[in-house]
């Protein structure tokens, strides 16, 4: 790896370390995904009916990707093959991301993860979760029972 591309690799590793430190500072659970060589760009969009996660993954096929939901955590991982080394060519510029990636996204909204969908088209992975009513904040009144004399709970 030449000095120029080594610095791009180091910058990518620095970004992954910053992500880890931010996760630690915010008190989020430790990542289950091994930090990869790069991180895809992600947008999170809220509509009236759903939460959309848009992930840029040019050059990937659906078979290259794993999308899992673990509680409130969306775990994305995949492997983009590196170009095979050739005898008659050398890279003069290498900016496209390659290799393994892992990304975790905390789902802070109440969503129906069982009805989620993941679609890959034209280099964009679109993951959609229907929103559900957040009933954790709703007031709930519990009936108080009277115990007979001498009974302890």
Folded structure, characterized:
The protein has 153 residues and is of the alpha+beta class. It has one domain: Sandwich (Immunoglobulin-like). 15% of the residues lie in helices and 30% in strands. The protein is built from one helix and seven strands; from the N terminus they run H-E-E-E-E-E-E-E. A four-stranded antiparallel β-sheet has the order 1-2-7-6, with no helix packed on it. A three-stranded antiparallel β-sheet has the order 3-4-5, with no helix packed on it. The longest helix is centred in the first third of the chain and has 23 residues, at 3-25. The chain is elongated. The protein starts with a helix and ends in a 23-residue tail after the last strand. The relative contact order is 0.19. The mean pLDDT is 80.
Brief summary:
By secondary structure, this protein is α+β, with helices and mostly antiparallel strands.
Spell out the blueprint of helices and strands.
Elements lengths: L2 H23 L16 E5 L3 E7 L8 E6 L2 E8 L18 E8 L10 E5 L2 E7 L23
Antiparallel strand pairs: 1-2, 2-7, 3-4, 4-5, 6-7
Q: State the major sheet.
A: 4 strands, antiparallel
CATH architecture grouping? Sandwich
Inertia-based shape = elongated
Series of secondary-structure elements, N-terminal to C-terminal = HEEEEEEE
Domains, number: 1
Q: Give the uncertain stretches in residue-range form.
A: none
What structural category arises from helix and sheet content? alpha+beta
Specify the helix fraction band: 10-25%
Mean pLDDT: 80
Q: Could you tell me how far the N terminus lies from the C terminus, measured between alpha carbons in angstroms?
A: 69 Å
CATH level 1 name: Mainly Beta
Evaluate the radius of gyration: 22 Å
């Amino acid at each position: 790896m030449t000095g120029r591309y080594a610095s791009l690799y180091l910058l990518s590793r620095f970004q992954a370390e910053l992500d880890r430190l931010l996760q630690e500072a915010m008190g989020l659970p430790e990542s289950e995904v091994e930090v990869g060589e790069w991180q895809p760009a992600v947008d999170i969009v809220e509509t009236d009916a759903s939460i959309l996660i848009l992930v840029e993954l040019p050059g990937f096929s659906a078979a290259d990707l794993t999308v899992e939901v673990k509680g409130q955590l969306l775990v994305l991982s995949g492997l983009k093959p590196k170009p095979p080394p050739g005898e008659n060519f050398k890279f003069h510029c290498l900016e496209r991301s390659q290799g393994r990636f892992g990304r975790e996204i905390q789902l802070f909204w109440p969503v129906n993860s069982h009805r989620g969908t993941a679609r890959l088209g034209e280099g964009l992975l679109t993951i959609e979760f229907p929103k559900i009513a957040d009933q954790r904040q709703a007031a709930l009144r519990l009936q108080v029972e009277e115990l007979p004399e001498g009974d302890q709970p």
